[in-house]
Amino acid sequence: MELNTYNKDHFTIGMGLRQKYCLSNPFFYGYVNVCRIIISEILKLTIERGGLLMAEVNPFIKDAVVQFQTGALSLKQIEAIFNVLPFDIDFIDVNDRFKWFSNKPNREHARSTSQLQDTLQQLHPGTAAARAQAVIDSFKKGEKQHVEIPLNVDGKLIDINYYAVRDNKGQYLGTIEYTGTINHLKELIDQGAWKQDATTGASKDGETHSSEKGDAVSGASRNEKAHSEKKSDATTGPSRLSMKDDRWIP
Of 31, 118, 121, 184, which one has the greatest count of Cβ atoms within 10 A? Predict the structure, then answer.
């Protein structure tokens, strides 16, 4: 098949014109074909590097900052914060698909990016999937906001919490699963870490005699204040047992 020769407007030059101009000017035919070869090579290179060229010209985000209601963080800071938190965080979206997980070392529940988009049935083994689905269904119905599952696995105290994630209008967005070990907290409790008074360092049982004296302004002792505070909490404030959050043991 005979090669076509093109003029400056990219139209094919007919045989009559080609003979008229090319034969009378031998350089014209060679010049046009050299240009054609150069253009072909440029097009070929553009196709081969198409992905790279598109990546270079398409919009992208660099060093982005997310403005929250309580401050601003860069994407790098956000990821670093999630990775350093001493517990696992998983997010299940509104369609019950696994969408994101914190990447801290030595997770209690190992996760990988290959699991992203998995269903609850794929993510949780055995009967755990049905239990997790029941929790999420209760969130969607607005029946619950939080479910806690304490487990003792070979002496390791694991605290699993499910939290419903909602927007400012109460619309369900998904579920956060938080998992952490609390052995160190139990050890601190056993060691009496919280028996000391937060302000004086003295234990409640060992408060000085002066602390039992009446307050200089009101005349009430600390014990009387504490007793009064407990009463107010019992009547007006929420106690831990009366919270809507449910402690659910499978």
Answer: 118
Tens-digit pLDDT profile for residues 170-229:
999 999 999 999 999 999 999 999 987 656 555 555 544 444 444 444 444 444 444 444
DSSP 215: P
Cα 239 to Cα 190, 230, 232, distances in angstroms: 23, 10, 11
* Residues whose CB falls within 8 Å of the CB of residue 107, separated by 6 or more in sequence, listed in order: 88, 101, 179
Q: How many C-beta neighbours within 10 Å does residue 160 have?
A: 20
Q: Which of 83, 187, 223, 245 is nearest to 75 (CA)?
A: 83
Q: If DSSP codes are grouped into helix, strand and coil, which group holds residue 211?
A: helix
What are the residue boundaries of the structural domains of the chain, listed by start?
Answer: 15-57, 81-187, 195-235
Domain 81-187: which CATH class? alpha beta
The closest alpha carbon to 147, from 250, 249, 245, belongs to 245
* Six token digits for residue 127: 């009967």
